[in-house]
Fold these 3 entries.
Entry 1:
Amino acid sequence: MKKIIIIGATSGIGYEIAMRYAAQGNQVGITGRRTDFLEEIQQKCPSNIYVKTMDVCKDTATEDLQALITEMGGVDTIFINSGYGKECKELDADTEMQAVATNAMGFTNLIIFSYNYFKTQPKGHIVVTSSVASVRALRQSPAYSATKRYMRHYVDCLAQRARHEKLNIRFTTLIPGFIATDFLEARQNYPLLISLDKACNIIYKAIEKKKRDVYLPFRWNFVVLLWKLIPKWFWERCW
Ligand SMILES: NC(=O)c1ccc[n+]([C@@H]2O[C@H](COP(=O)([O-])OP(=O)(O)OC[C@H]3O[C@@H](n4cnc5c(N)ncnc54)[C@H](OP(=O)(O)O)[C@@H]3O)[C@@H](O)[C@H]2O)c1
């Protein structure tokens, strides 16, 4: 039986993965800002779902995480899945700063806490949701693209650090393309769009196998390879 905490599990990917783990009798801690959603989800599996209202942008987020860990009597896997990003037609500071607060500052606070927590344990697993938006510059969502890149890079640094410190902490970075959740804006034609169910099949396996970097669906590996071959001067003009 696994003890997993999913930060950002009131809807979409986090919710679906929480339900899968809970259905198999694992102990699952879930967080989000929408307390009513959390309570509703807990009612579905009251014996093994633990909930904590948490805004990752607030300084109290790590206290909330610690409280949830204590309530669960420990944790094996912490999945930092919360994220914010909107298309920014105008370069709007509020939208951009919300992405920075959630995906960079809130994320950093929580991953540092998670790393230091697992440092005191025999082993641990940290899972993070980045995005293919992290691969190249995206003028439509500068802060989202930049912060999702930051997340990946930060995880790479901690993975390197854990090896040098000889800690048994494993890391998984999920790099989704487009998944049919409320996160996507109501416009059509997202390339390589996949269903939430299909995405969560891949994510569940990736967590169980403790894979390192996971593009989903797999075809994004090839797209990203091509993107990386495009010179910056051409990318700036044509994308
Ligand atoms: N769907 C896609 O196509 C796609 C593609 C690439 C990457 N992603 C990434 O996948 C992750 C999950 O997204 P999703 O598609 O499942 O969308 P979603 O249904 O909107 O889920 C986002 C989750 O993050 C939580 N969250 C957002 N801001 C938060 C905050 N300040 N504090 C605490 N929790 C917060 C939300 O909970 P509350 O609102 O209750 O706080 C919600 O549970 C995100 O990191 C997103 O960037 C999604």
Entry 2:
Amino acid sequence: MSDVFDKPLLDAQSLHKHFPVGKAPGPFARAPNTWFGRADRPVPKLHAVDDVTFTLAKGETLGLVGESGCGKSTLVRLLTRLLDLTDGSIRLDGAEIGHLPARGFGSSSYRPRIQMVFQDAGDSLNPRFTAFAAIADPIRRLKPLPREQLWARVEALATMCGLPLELLGRFPHQLSGGQKARVGIARAIAVEPDLLILDEPTAALDVSVQVVILQLLNDLKTRLGMSYLFVSHDLNVVRLLCDRVMVMYLGKIVESGPAEEVFRNPSHPYTRALLSAIPHFMPGQAAPRLRIAGEPRSPIDPSPKVCRFYGRCPQARVACEQSMPLLQGVGQEHSADHSVACHFPITANAAREVA
Ligand SMILES: Nc1ncnc2c1ncn2[C@@H]1O[C@H](COP(=O)(O)OP(=O)(O)O)[C@@H](O)[C@H]1O
Ligand code: SF4
Ligand SMILES: [Mg+2]
């Protein structure tokens, strides 16, 4: 499937986002155990996103999975240019947008091309805006239309997203969860983005509504030819919707590849543990659950030499605390664009033995 997506729409190279945490020593602070000399210890930094590189092709759906706190939302906020990068490059259709300050990005000509669907439509919608005003808002700001055309456009968007037109005059508190989600999606596609970033778009919805909204998102993608970056902790959904998947752990991508391939032959011990936790609906198909012991390492000034999964990894050996594993091709037996960051990746045969 990947040869269809030959030209990258988004090219993210070596993205870093480090948040300062705690205080820098004051101007009169002394170095520890001395009466002289100023403490010049740097401010500790939380490495929320650490050297993340990937591409996203036109028309592709890329899934991003990983446990809470691993950096998914920070990565999304970097890509949507709500946050400034600490370092790295983001190219949209070849144009560098990573260096544009987040503060001014709202008025940049690139803004309409990347839009976002938020986790909780209820929280992200302005309570003082009717559904009509919420959908019209990005059009007014980014691609203004004359009044009559605006009405027609908002109605067309509502219809496309399955929102009955009689609900356009309602405020968020007068809409159900599914209806709010439809408003959030209509709003996101209103300015015809090339890339839609969806941060856990159905996490706040009932299961039955989730299915309908996912179906809607899938239909819209085909109809409008958008690319999706789909963030989810629901691996079943990622498997169904995504062409490729990236697995994130403590700020780093630890495995990436075609979704079917990664789900069939997970090579990173963390991916295997994540996948073993998926509930299987067919009796007899369930693989034994791999539980990860211990706590994640601290994301504050982590050692650049120690694998981030070290300490929790059942496969760990001495080499894992001596050098950081880099993301590289898994090997001939797997698909060419399947990569893993592990010194001792699990091969298909070894995986069968372990299971
Ligand atoms: N503004 C911030 N200041 C300091 N730390 C932050 C900030 N935003 C996120 N973090 C930290 O960055 C890490 C990743 O957070 P986040 O991107 O929200 O993860 P996820 O979306 O995967 O749950 C967490 O340790 C979180 O506490
Ligand atoms: S490099 Fe070592 S500690 Fe890290 S995931 Fe691989 S086996 Fe586990
Ligand atoms: Mg998040």
Entry 3:
Amino acid sequence: MADVDDDGYQEVCISTDAGDVRAISRNGQLLAGYPLAMSAPSISGVAAGDIDGDGLFELVAATWDGFVYAWDTPGRAMPGRADWPLRNVNERNTGVYGDHGAHEVFWDGFESGDTSKWSLTVP
Ligand SMILES: [Ca+2]
Ligand SMILES: [Ca+2]
Ligand SMILES: [Ca+2]
């Protein structure tokens, strides 16, 4: 899910076994300019991100015949414009919609070298 037409509402973006990428608006309509054709069925799902640093989303998908496609979109890559930028996951890979990293993170001390929370029990 990402706002790929910059109207402030996110589209559901899917890649298909028919070999294309579709963006569906909140009204259930295919966006103008879609589907985006590919050479073979999708192997990847579709991802949205600013891969060239121009401040706008690109959509990216890969096909069974070994190609990776990237398309420019007019959607501005800014906070709140892509709740689900990757297939099946959110930005934290938790698979929970709306999970934007607000949860407490458990630190095990591995990075800091603090072993005080480590268990000494060996099964
Ligand atoms: Ca939109
Ligand atoms: Ca971009
Ligand atoms: Ca671009």
